[in-house]
Amino acid sequence: MDSNTEVLAGWRSGVCGWDALVERYSRLVWSVPRSFRLSHADAADVYQCTWLCLAEHLTRIRQPEALGVWLVRTATHQSIAVLRARGREVSLDRWEPESSLPTPDEVAVANDRQRRLWTALMTLNERCQRLLWIAAHSPELSCAQVAEALGMKVSSVGRTRARCLTALRRKLEALR
């Protein structure tokens, strides 16, 4: 059985055609939810739902040669439905009781602190800005990696970072 028409006719007449369809389109159907970057479990659900929809609508397929398009559209609709449902969910591990939310005063203080930090940081020279940025955002990097990224000697990374932090502290104190 080569064409989709022959496979569907075989399935309708009781000759096994389902396995041929699954084999032919399995990778295509699986690729759709993965292209939406769904988790493996969600992609597997979409995959199963797509084949279930086909089983439910198999007798109504009017253009068997367009079956691939039908499967992609169905898997796309299923993937979008999963994304919508996930967007409305609240993960319990990220849920915090309302009492732990910051007060408006706490938010204002934190915003002011961040503004002052960025203002002070931007007044440092570019080398200090880059070094402190790397230290804050990639603390796992070794001194050798930081030195290579900034074009510095490995032995000067620690001393330069200490000088930059001292300069940043002074500038922050001046902004108080």
UniProtKB/TrEMBL annotation:
Keyword 4Fe-4S applies: no
The keyword Transcription regulation is annotated on this UniProt entry: yes
Ranges where the RNA polymerase sigma-70 region domain occurs: 21-88
Record-linked Gene3D superfamilies: 1.10.1740.10, Winged helix-like DNA-binding domain superfamily/Winged helix DNA-binding domain (1.10.10.10)
Keywords in alphabetical order: DNA-binding, Sigma factor, Transcription, Transcription regulation
Family, similarity comment: Belongs to the sigma-70 factor family. ECF subfamily.
Protein name listed in UniProt: RNA polymerase sigma factor (Sigma-70 family)
